[in-house]
Amino acid sequence: MSITPHDERFIAAAIRLSRWHLGRTATNPSVGCLIVRDGVIVGRAVTALGGRPHAETQALAEAGVLARGATAYVTLEPCSHHGKTPPCSEALIAYGVARVVISVTDPDRRVSGRGIAMLRQAGIEVDAGALEAEGRQSLAAYLIRQTKNRPYVTLKLAVSADGMIGRAGEGQVAITGPEARAQVQALRTETDAILVGIGTAIADDPLLTVRTPSLESQSPIRIVLDPSLALPLTGKLVETAREVPVIVVASEEVWPLSADAEGLPPSALPGYRGRATGLDPSFGPPAGGEIGKRRDPNSPVSDGDGFGLRQDVGQGANPDPISPLVGEMPGRAEGGAALDSRRAALEAAGVEVLYCNPYHPEVLLPALATRGISSLLVEGGAKTARLFLEAGLVDRIQLYQAPGVIGERGIESPLLTTDIPSGFVHTGTLMFGEDRLDEYERGL
Fold it and tell me: Which of 56, 77, 252, 390 is catalytic?
């Protein structure tokens, strides 16, 4: 039997259901499942908070005996391997469903195709690929972590009418209105982690939590790119580190001498780069001239995030990842004891210090994936945004445009709607009050 409009209606409902627990199912994907008998939904479920139980087993339990002879609509291929719970394919067989309609085949090598084969061998009819594009978008974080060994990266920028994202020396500047800010809070609830540069962390002293009433517990892990451990111990991030996790990404140059027998930084350890990387080699930087075209070549290299920037990314630009300025970070020979003291103070406050070059997102992202982070929201700092854009490691762009003007001492946005990198497709425009949101995505 081929996929019908009737099937697409139910798989669309399963996809909507799957979004309920985005960012809240640990390393497991948030999957939606409907059990339908004679056109009536008799069981429905989404992957439980924390990742277990899976959607299929919950939906089958709700349907009970009505599952026999019914059709199961599921957004991701049912698992076929024994993990902490029995395979969902076995549960579908045991309950006697007659047909399974799947949106996306699981890329996990333990599952891919095996779940479908197990169902068919049991005499169950299986149709896969129903609304696959929509299904893949809802599972984007899981699919990217499985296939590229890194989190799915969303870059969020709020830009004034004159192309600025803030004003130098003034900390947080409200660019968008309350409706747009509420939407950003909703985005945070669906994301595993949020990342800013140290310049933003110092200038703004942000919390980076979810402030929507009753949803505070869904706050993402906070990550700060902080090469020299400059995060203030009295700032909001450190003070709340035991309530909502904080990871500080420090330069390997400040790796504590006592960390291992030889005092070597992570990059000097055997096999480090092989373990940390694993990105799809086709996922390269944007084409020349796409980013930074509006930047004045005579403008200062630093704009507050603590990063040294290439002056251009056009023809002949340095293809290597961004490197820090000479003298920007203290080495072990200078200030080593002070750095060790700061590290100890941060860790005593509950902050995790991750030694992984902050200027190499192609190494940092896989390191975050090993911590179970499947989705990352890059939210703070012009240079931090450029860092990920120039590395070609942004999957989705959310660009808010507000009618207000920043004026003098404005910090120029690294991106406008007129210079979106190639490879991104405009997927929609929404209005939140007077603010316009344009969203762009790469193909998965």
Answer: 56
H or E stretch covering 144: helix 140-148
Integer angstrom CA distances of residue 132 from 11, 89, 116, 254, 322: 10, 20, 16, 46, 37
Global pTM?
Answer: 0.82
Question: Residue 135: which of 74, 57, 71 has the closest Cα?
Answer: 74
CA–CA separation, 438 vs 309, rounded Å? 26
Q: What is the pLDDT along the chain (444 residues), one digit of tens a residue?
A: 799 999 999 999 999 999 999 989 988 999 999 999 999 999 999 999 999 999 999 999 999 999 999 999 999 999 987 666 689 999 999 999 999 999 999 998 878 889 999 999 999 999 999 999 999 999 999 999 999 999 999 999 999 999 999 988 777 788 999 999 999 999 999 999 999 999 999 999 999 999 999 999 999 999 999 999 999 999 999 999 999 999 999 998 777 755 543 444 454 444 433 333 333 333 333 333 333 333 333 333 333 344 333 323 332 333 344 434 333 344 444 467 888 899 999 999 999 999 998 989 999 999 999 999 999 999 978 999 999 999 999 999 999 999 999 988 899 999 999 999 999 999 999 999 999 999 999 987
Residue 56 is among the residues annotated as catalytic for this protein: yes
